[in-house]
Amino acid sequence: MTTPNDFRVTSWTELVDQLYDGSWDSGLARYRSKYAFRGLSNADYDLKTSLIRLGGDFARLERHLLRNFRKYAHRDAAPGGSVWNWLSVAQHHGLPTRLLDWTYSPFVAIHFATAKLGRFHVDGVVWCLDYVEMNKILPERLNAVLLDEGSHVFTVDLLECAAPDLETFDRLADEGEEFVVFLESPSLDERIVNQFAFFSLLSNPRTALDSWLAHHPELYRRIIIPAELKWEVRDKLDQANINERVLLPGLDGLSRWLTRHYSPKT
How far apart are alpha carbons 60 and 64 in whole angstroms? Predict the structure, then answer.
């Protein structure tokens, strides 16, 4: 897929400049980016959630999936009983949910855009979403919670104050206008922490985020990483210690890093 908001970089330096473009906060006089980043190994991949990819009557099955996950999971799997805690844990462990993974770190995003050697023949992409501007079109009830807290992103506790369950959350849409919030997960394990991860959450489980963004082009841009640039990006990330061993702690991540690191350039 291509969009009018695509920017195709031609070098490592241009890539880094684009990733940090707009990060200067004049109010703080600091470099604090207001973008969420998501890296994909193929620029044609969309932003459908794992719940949508489940297929069938997935929206109706959402509550059943989460209910049974809570029923069969270890009693200490999620801190507290909040549905937002459980949804975060479920997403983290591979259950189909309406959540989509993002990161505050542009370098983590380009890791995931260049981690699969089998995709080095196609262009990669980093999606950049302005979550600060997105908050301005939230329902009043949600926006008030963020303003009162002085935050741009919801925590589990903050979101529960405005919507204790998915049904209440979905009903917050004004006159059917869908909205997106960003939710920080609890620090469930080192993977969440090291990836500097958080989630996007749409008020309609049937809607893919890229479809929603097509109606809000001012809220995003896409940085295209050409296939011919991927090896250079990958090597420089590895030297910066941005790799599977760090981002996927454990023996599985270690094995994935070593396999890729010692694979020939063919």
Answer: 8
- pLDDT-derived band of residue 244, with 50, 70 and 90 as boundaries? very high
Who contacts 108 (Cβ-Cβ below 8 Å, separation ≥6)? 37, 39, 195, 196, 197, 242, 247
pLDDT value, residue 173: 84
* 197-202 and 24-25 strand pairing: unpaired
Specify the DSSP class assigned to residue 74.
-
Residue 37's nearest CA partner among 124, 95, 96 is 124
Residue 75 has pLDDT above 70, yes or no: no
For residue 156, what are the contacts with CB-CB under 8 A and spacing of at least 6?
80, 82, 84, 85, 88, 183, 184, 185, 186
If you search the block for the tokens 């991860």, which residue do you land on?
197
Tell whether the model's pLDDT for residue 74 goes beyond 90.
no
How far is 221 from 181, CA to CA, in rounded Å? 18
Question: Residues 221, 5: contact at Cβ < 8 Å?
Answer: yes
Average pLDDT over residues 121-137: 96
User: Which pLDDT score is estimated for 114?
Assistant: 97
Per DSSP, 185 falls in state P
Q: H-helix or E-strand containing 224?
A: strand 220-225
Closest CA to 36 of 131, 113, 101, 135: 131
Band of the pLDDT at 76, cuts 50, 70, 90? low
Q: In what order do the strands lie in the sheet with 154-155?
A: 6-8, 220-225, 124-130, 35-40, 99-103, 197-202, 180-184, 154-155
How far apart CA 73 and CA 9 sit, in angstroms, is 44
